[in-house]
């Protein structure tokens, strides 16, 4: 982990680097999970959260296996499928399948139960499980999912989440904005923060990037704060990045 000042033009003022191989790791046979922040049996006092971003789990679930019914409350839970089909059921009466290009959100609020299973018998399912602390407690539980056009993230940042129900993507009870971009080699994009005081956690889904002079590889994470904007540059074809802008104060 780094937390420093970089004396160069367009450099980040403050950042925190989490290399992929420093994440927590759990292998349960049917489930392999990498934890960016403390979760379950992985505890790291220096990796408890990034602002209101509490959990970033990189999960792989074997064929026909999954998470049985379990409870949540007062958390915004986002699932981003990366490969395969994930079947979802919950106590609100929802039964659905999410796949690459879909974004799923649950506002757990006063309490929900749900289960998640690999729908297929012949391939893995890979997805990100993300938890965000809400800015309102004990709300009525809510479920939503959207299917996005993957071509809208080619060489640009596609918004997939915001605080606003009328915006593109899903919405949550928090002043947070998520974007995904998929870039050709050496393509540069600028990210402007939506709210003063927020930070951004960048997670590399595929390939290699440079952000403010920091080199990042697949599954690396970079927390950025005390800035209004920054540039990202792809260093490989098909490089894919997830940007999670969140409040820094719990």
UniProtKB/TrEMBL annotation:
CDD domains: cupin_Yhhw_N (cd02910). It comes from the Bacteria. Residues 160-246 form the Quercetin 2,3-dioxygenase C-terminal cupin domain. Signal peptide: none annotated. InterPro entries: Pirin, Pirin_N_dom, Quercetinase_C, RmlC-like_jellyroll, RmlC_Cupin_sf. PANTHER family: QUERCETIN 2,3-DIOXYGENASE (PTHR43212:SF3). This is Pirin family protein. It comes from Flavobacterium tiangeerense.
